[in-house]
Every structure is written in structure tokens, then in C-alpha cells.
Amino acid sequence: MTYGTIATWRMAHEGVIKATELLKKQKSAGDAVETLINRVEAYPYYKSVGYGGLPNEQGVVEMDAAFMNGDDLAIGAVAGIQNVKHAVSVARKLSKLHFNSFRVGEGATRYAIQNDFEMVNMLTPRAKKIWQNRLLEIQEKKLDPYDGHDTVGAITLDQQGSMAAATSTSGLFMKKPGRIGDSPLSGSGFYVDSEVGGAAATGLGEDLMKGCLSYEIVRLMAEGRTPQQACDQAVYPFIEKLQKRYGKAGEFSLVAMNKAGAWGVATNVEFTFSVGNDKQVPVILMANPGP
Ligand code: SD4
Questions:
Q1: Is 242 exposed, middle or buried (0-12, 13-18, 19+ CB in 10 A)?
Q2: For residue 238, how many other CB atoms are within 10 A of its CB?
Q3: How far apart are CA 260 and CA 245, in angstroms?
Q4: pLDDT in tens, 136-156
Q5: What's this model's pTM, rounded to 2 decimal places?
Q6: Pairing between β-strand 152-157 and β-strand 190-193 as defined by DSSP bridges
Q7: Residues 5, 109, 124, 151: which is the catalytic one?
Q8: Which value does ipTM take for this structure?
Q9: What is the pLDDT of residue 145?
Q10: Candidate of 49, 147, 168, 169 to mutate for ligand 1, largest count of ligand atoms within 8 Å of Cβ
Q11: What CA–CA distance (Å, rounded) separates 270 from 27?
């Protein structure tokens, strides 16, 4: 039976390997995507996701994450959550609730504590040093706060035909406290429908959410486009639109997979991603800025 996963950035590769193994053993798309994202969250040297993620301008690590079940379209999300090792697991548990399934800030953190999620000081000494150095640099020269930030976003398809999507990020380095990007927002950072397929985004959240691009890609797939056609048709005209209205567009990279396991990607930067399925061992691939 067909199964597969696609995820953003090189950092997702070990998680994709693990998720692909699980899918091969007929585990669920939900378990596979959570395991994939947990791997990235736990690794201390990825500066933009989970433990070791870079903090906001006050030195506080605030995480955003989401989980979506493509069968019942259930969504759970957290934003600005603190000191929780696996934000995506909190999001997955929230997805089981009909009410109160998207929590922010203190309410999200409190929910994690009350439900026995692993709590840890997410600001590693390394991340603290990078933050301190950046504070000094900012005093010396005017710097763009958006610098080298990546979200892990993934789509999984299991052998039963179920799909899931999830994201996790510490968001923009030096962001203002309380700033939330696209990653926990359904339709922008992610979307999945097991009857069609799913998509996930990484890039500048403030621009990504103007286009609801993950939903747009799924909508185009539902109309019959391949994942690659859907990515191309959703992403590049929207980048042009932003360029026309603002003179520029943020960095955008989107990945998609349909219910048959075919995948696509669109990006305006050099972008690495990882794909694993029943036809090939997981590989890291590189996409060049399109179209
Ligand atoms: C955000 N989309 O918070 C995230 C950050 C990111 O590549 O993915 N950067 O806006």
C-alpha cells in the first residue's frame, strides 16, 4: 500500500526516516507526523524549532505548533507556549477537543503542565549566547529581525489512506513578545484533508498568512491539480501579488503531498526538504527558487 511523508528543511530528515519506518509498519499518519516533529524539537542544535530554538527580543523562547488530522479535519494548536519540550504533542492532544483547541501564551503552558507534558528550560546556553551577541549587533547596526528562521512542517500519508499535518517553530528570532506567525494557523502554516492531500509552509509568517497558501494548495489539488501544479499555481502568483503591492515578498517555501503520495514544492529561496515513501528510501532534496 502507498504511504509517504514530506517535510520542510534538511533538519527534518532524521524525523522523515523515522516516520517512514513507522508508516511502513502500518502506524498511523498522526503518530508518524508527531514522531517526525518530536525528533526535530528535541535536537538542541536546530535554532528555530524546539529545544535550542532562538528566543524573542527579551530572551524568552516562545513556540508555535499545530497538528491536523486529515480524516476528521480536527485541529489543535498552541502559540507563544513556553518551557514545553514538545509543543506539537500538546497541539495534538488539543486537537481531540471540540472547544478550546487553540491555546496561546500562559493558557497553553498551563494546559501542558496540567497534562504532564515534559517541561524544560528551552533556552540553551548556546541560544542565549547567540541572542546576547545579536543584541550587541543590533545596537551597532540596524538589523532585520528576520534572520535564518525555519519551521518544520510535515505531511504524512499512512497505509490506511489517512493523512496528517503538523508544524513546530520558535518563530522569528528577536520577535516581539506575543508575536505569532503562520505556523499554528490552519490554512496558512498547514492544512490537510485525507480525501485530497495536505500542504505545509515555512518562511515569513506575516507574508505567508496573507495568502492562506496551504489551504489554497489543498483546494487546487481538490480541483484536480497535481501537488506540483497546485504549489506552482498557489505560490508564485501570490509572490508576484505581494511584490506588486509591497515591492517585495518574504521568503516562502511550501511542500505538498496528495492522497496518492505524489508530492510537490514551491519556493522563492534555495530550499531543502526531505521525502520518504514506499517507493524509495528517504532522501534530502533541494529546490531552487521558481518559477
Ligand atoms: C514564522 N513561519 O513564525 C515561521 C518561521 C519560519 O522560515 O518558518 N521561517 O513566521
A1: middle
A2: 20
A3: 37
A4: 887 777 666 656 568 999 999
A5: 0.96
A6: unpaired
A7: 151
A8: 0.96
A9: 60
A10: 169
A11: 33
